Amino acid sequence: MLCPVPFSVGEAVGFPRDASCVPCNLASDFVAEPNQRAIFPRMKPGLTRIFLAFLFLPLCAFASNSVVNMSHYDLVRADFVGMKNEGVVGVIHEATFPRLQRDWRYFERQTAASQAGLLWGAYHFGNGTDPISQADHFLAVVGSSHPPASKADDPEKRRAGVLLVLDFEKNGHYPGGSMSVAQAVAFVERIKERTGKYPGIYASEYRLRQMLYGPGSSAAHRDLLSNCWLWIANYQSEPRYTSPWQRWDLWQYTGDGKCGLRPRSAFPTRVANLGRAERNIFRGKGDMIGPRRTGIVPYFCYLIDCIKSTHGRSR
């Protein structure tokens, strides 16, 4: 599998959907020699082979290795300037976890990352308790953190935005059990109600398939959750099973030093002073933002000013 070496900050943007996502089944339409002559009559054989090689590249070859996620379990004093120098564009940090706890490293790292010119995201680790209370607590923590203005050169990155995510992993180390599919639906609906936008949803490829197509899940649940953008984990290969989503938007390919992908130069497991980093490959989804809003920056422009309850006041 071929994926790029991390791009620089200026290059870490997605491609328009019609330019970057050539489905593998379409590539087979161009394999036969008669088709090659019909479609590329003036193209030299060598150029034809190169073009066909690009058609067979995995989708991650058109993406950027530019997002790191962290939590209070990362004990190191993170070098965000170093991350930026290595091509990282955004950091997604745990903000809240069961039961209604705030990650004590969240604010200090948000401040440091913002000062380094990095985009910022926040995730909530869900459990099996009241999903509405979890969503409200998550938004209260995120909304109460006000980082200073970014020093980023790009004016888009100076917007006070936070990317919101539900961590839908199996809960084996916090109280309250694991979140059900119905609870995940209620959580993301609450986020949508109060912010006007659906959050992302994170889980492993296996977990998503197990939960979304297992007992207690319905087509209505899957349809609702598919409004969220998809952050998926697979440390062995590029995720292929993403139903009900058409594709992944963010792929976590390594965590805690675990990564079975090669070559290592394309799939590094460290960044700056994080030796066992959790790293992610980003692929933009232009139609989620708008016909001319592609790339990674719009993902991180979820304005916290719009967080409100149904009664018009923050909780």
Task: Characterise this structure.
The relative contact order is 0.17. The protein contains eleven helices and nine strands. The radius of gyration is 20 Å and the shape is globular. It has one domain: TIM Barrel. Helices cover 28% and strands 16% of the residues. Helix 7 packs across helix 8. The termini are far apart. By secondary structure, the protein is α/β, with parallel strands linked by helices. It has an eight-stranded mixed β-barrel, surrounded by four helices.
CATH architecture identity: Alpha-Beta Barrel
Helix proportion = 25-40%
According to CATH, what is the topology? TIM Barrel
What's the level 1 CATH class? Alpha Beta
Major β-sheet annotation: 8 strands, mixed, barrel
Task: Give a short overview.
This protein is 28% helix and 16% strand. The protein is an alpha/beta fold. Strands 1-2-4-5-6-7-8-9 form an 8-stranded mixed barrel, surrounded by 4 helices.
What is the topological layout?
Elements lengths: L16 H4 L3 H4 L5 H7 L5 H11 L8 E7 L9 H6 L4 E8 L3 E2 L3 H10 L3 E7 L5 H13 L19 E5 L13 H15 L4 E5 H8 L6 H7 L3 E5 L16 E5 L23 E5 L3 H4 L26
Parallel strand pairs: 1-2, 2-4, 4-5, 5-6, 6-7, 7-8
Antiparallel strand pairs: 1-9, 2-3, 8-9
Which terms summarize this structure?
disordered C terminus; about 325 residues; eight-stranded mixed beta barrel; 11 helices; disordered N terminus; TIM Barrel; alpha/beta; single chain
